Amino acid sequence: MIRRLWRAIRSSRSRSAFEHDMQEELRVHLEQRADDLARSGLPLEEARRRARVEFGSVERYKEELRESRPLTRAALLPGQLWRELVLASRRLVAAPVFTVFGVVSLAIGLGTTTAVYSVMYTVLWPSSGLGDARSLAYLMAPRRSGASWQSVVSRGDFEDLRASSKSFSSLTAWTTFFRPYVDGAFGETLDGEAVTGNAFATVGVSAQLGRPLTPDDDRPGAAAAVMLSDHFWRQTLNADPSVVGRMVRIGGHPFQVVGVAPRSFLGFGPPRFSSYTSAWMPLEALRLFSSTVPKTLDPREHSVERLSVVGRLAPGRTVREASAELMAIAGRLDAAFPKYLVVDSQGTLAAAPTPRGWSAEQVDVAIASVYETQAPFLIVGLVGLVLLVACTNLANLTLARGSARQHEFSVRRALGASRGRLIREQLIESLLLGTAAGALALGVARGLLVAVASNMPLGFRVEIDTALAPGVTIAAGIGLVLALLVFGVWPALQLTRNDVRTGLAGDGGGTGPIRWRTRRSLISAQVAISASFLLVAAMCVRAILPDGSPGPGVDVDRLALSQVDFAMHQQDESRARHTMARIEELAHGQAGIESIAFADGMPFGLRASQAALTTPDDVAGGATAQAPWTYVISGSPSLLRVLGVPVLAGRGFEDRDAAGTQPVVILSEAAAKRVFGTTDVLGRQIALTGDSFSLDVTTASGPLTVVGVARDTDVAVAGTRKGTVVYVPLAQHYRPYLFVVARARTEPAGVAGLLRLLIRGADPDLVPGVSGTALLLTAGPAMAVKMLGGIALGLGMLALVLAMAGLYGVLAHLVARRRREMGIRMALGATASRISRMVLRDGYRPVVVGLFVGFLVGTAARLAFVRSVPKPIAAVDPLAYLLVPIPLALAAFLACYLPARRASRVDPNVALRDL
Amino acid sequence: VPPDQASLLHGTLDLLILKAVSLGERHGYGVLLRLEQMTGGKLAIEQGALYPALYRLVRRGLLEAEWGNSENNRRAKFYRLTASGRARLRAETSDWNRIVGIMAAALDSRPGTV
Prior knowledge:
The complex is a heterodimer of chains A (915) and B (114).
Chain A: H1 2-11, H2 15-39, H3 44-55, H4 58-67, H5 73-94, H6 96-124, E1 136-143, E2 146-148, H7 155-164, E3 168-183, E4 186-195, H8 199-203, E5 209-210, E6 225-228, H9 230-235, E7 247-250, E8 253-260, E9 279-282, E10 308-313, H10 319-336, E11 340-345, E12 348-353, E13 359-362, H11 363-370, H12 374-404, H13 406-414, H14 419-454, H15 470-495, H16 500-504, H17 513-544, E14 559-565, H18 573-588, E15 593-599, E16 609-614, H19 616-621, E17 629-635, H20 639-643, E18 647-650, E19 664-668, H21 669-676, E20 685-689, E21 704-710, E22 725-729, E23 737-744, H22 748-762, E24 771-773, H23 774-777, H24 781-817, H25 819-827, H26 832-865, H27 878-883, H28 885-904, H29 908-913
Parallel strand pairs in A: 4-9, 6-8, 17-22, 19-21
Antiparallel strand pairs in A: 1-2, 1-10, 1-13, 3-4, 3-7, 3-10, 5-8, 6-9, 7-8, 11-12, 14-23, 14-24, 15-23, 16-17, 16-20, 18-21, 19-22, 20-21
Helix pairs in contact in A: 2-3, 2-4, 5-14, 6-12, 6-14, 6-15, 6-24, 7-10, 12-15, 12-17, 12-24, 14-15, 17-24, 17-26, 18-22, 24-28, 26-28
Chain B: H1 3-22, E1 26-27, H2 28-38, H3 50-59, E2 63-69, E3 75-81, H4 83-108
Antiparallel strand pairs in B: 1-3, 2-3
Helix pairs in contact in B: 1-2, 1-3, 1-4
């Protein structure tokens, strides 16, 4: 059977190949015969003549052979298909506007969809690289911002949990570390995780090179071992395979690199947006560093909660069972080791016994919840709509164009062409359009991806792969085929439906009731899609736009930061101060840097230390327990200027606020109000006591004199003005962990890199920590939402443009189809303006219907989506309802008016001649 | 030529060609020479008539053709029996022999033997 088919296909090669074969074969025959005859003694000329005579009439046989060309059905198809393809492409070339518009709109629709799906795929559904993540669970504990997996368990609690849990077959704890990594002249900061020895076994991750960390590495006294992440190995070590086994120095101690983790493994916590985990070391190795808080690792310690926990569920156990068990264990621990937490309720401190409140959450779920997963689905839906609009356009156009060929179809059917044949013709045309559009769409998608990738903020975690994932491409291909089936077949069916007699009678089916209704409903559908799309897009924009909030209070756009940890490098204050002076000196020579400052924290959502804010009187009277909690930032004189935080009263820090002079302080307005109930506080004194456990400086300050009041900022959490902050001069309060912050003259992205160079230039032994623009460093999931918002907006515009073009195309076509009718009307005395009005009215009717339907659908969509948008937004938004129809109405007006004007200029004599 | 005789001749030519090709791969001219040898030069067809027969056999899947180099290094199309061609040749040959036997016996009959 297959052989037969193959022969059929082979024998049905194109006509010219067949012809060539045949000619050649007969020529060879004649030549050979002539040769043979010549060899037997005949002169060559005569031999040739004889050969021809013996052969008979060459032309007659050729004709006979041609007729014998195989004509089986299977063999027939390819040739015929080819002819039909040629015909279809001729038809398409003959209608360039239709073709170009169809191809471009479909390509844009498909390309955008593909690109957006690609981006979403990488950005929003990152794989943690954890083996079989469904049976892994994080231990969650209640925190101020909701249940959190981060730093929730003390070492003592963890050991008890590990000993008593039955729901988990294996439990692993980890904490993060920042340490300089030095290998010869090379230095870089590691942003790593310190893990229990069973960590890699628990999550089922091995090494791509060398070996993973094992329980042996985590024994007291074991040789210090470190495992590098693929990202660190690739990006900073140029994927040097010889690094495995090498001795390097981490935080000044010798470590042996034992392996490199697989590329897919990003770390034990959920993947982060702005940074990569660069290495893993055993928890035990943290003891090497003098600055490690010993309680972090002490198995008898039940209050310092620095560990995060992930566990592998025991076979057959569910997350729910694990949660119940964790709750029970936590209850037992609460009884044995009550946890007193200093809670900040309405700005006052209170030490209250606080339940641990543990629960388990499946790793997949926890990761998904980090990524604000609702918005993406909204976008996915909208992107689908764009493709639908593009397809509707194409269907509309095919229909409109086909209606112009109605007469031709009728004639052909009358002459015996089957309906199937006409439909096939249409399908082949759609197929050609689709193929061209598909090819173009790949280009569009790639272009978009390259654009997105190159506009990614520097250092953003997600690497956008500009090559289309095969899965995405295949999905796009399937989408295209479906689109072609629906929007190629359906109009074809519509067009060939009419009966032959009507089609033949004069008017080529221009205003047949069924088709007019069909076209009108298509236009309505498209307007409805656009309108509902724009309504939802408007909601997206609403959700993303800051709702009148004053921003972070810091002019962050041109800020670049780099961290230096002098303690990590075990450098003392005098050396640190010397280095800072050197950095400042170097920075002054840089054209890109406007100003530079140093501070141990940042008042806009980056870390800052905390202390209780009180007055010297309260300190003396011992009444500090109820003191409000505040953020404390120790900064160099230029800090507020660099940050762009205005000093509202008094002065900023100056060089005279040096060590040994009067201790001064600048309060934020909120801090001033908190302590004194007013912002008129210049010259008054405050004191700072205690400190949050996470910081190594615990000093009760002496009286600090207020010399200035600064404007409030979003101190702790971006988007809130809740916190209070006090600024103290770095000269009077040295901190070893510092941000170098610079205001760039233009673009801050390059300055972040420059800062790193300056730091290393000032002291080659220093390894800068995390660096980046302020926007990047404060970016979290908010960044993704912002990006998605951009995509949503872009799609909204795109849908609008497509809708406008589609509307114009179809209405213009319809109007052109009615030329004859207009000719008659004008011959009967209708004025040009009357004709225009009539066209406008007819054209607007489906638009109005579409708008109405679109509003209903859009409102329903908004009601459905409104709960998944993080901000409270009214589902029915009058502004959106007022604004959305405007572009559509404009488009409809253009679409109808231009053709209407053309129609009104029709010469009745010319138009009527067509009858 | 009366129609049934023509079809008999057609069938005969096809069978002869199948037989000729079965003796070894041949190009068109080679088939002709082989036919002449096989029939002792008694087959009188126009040489050109060979080709419609060859093409017909190819189309029926009894022969397959492929371009190659002839003995004197000319490009030529070579014909070869397919499996079904071989089977057909066997069937036709035995049919032919049967018919010939029957016909010979029939034509040989004399009064008294029937």
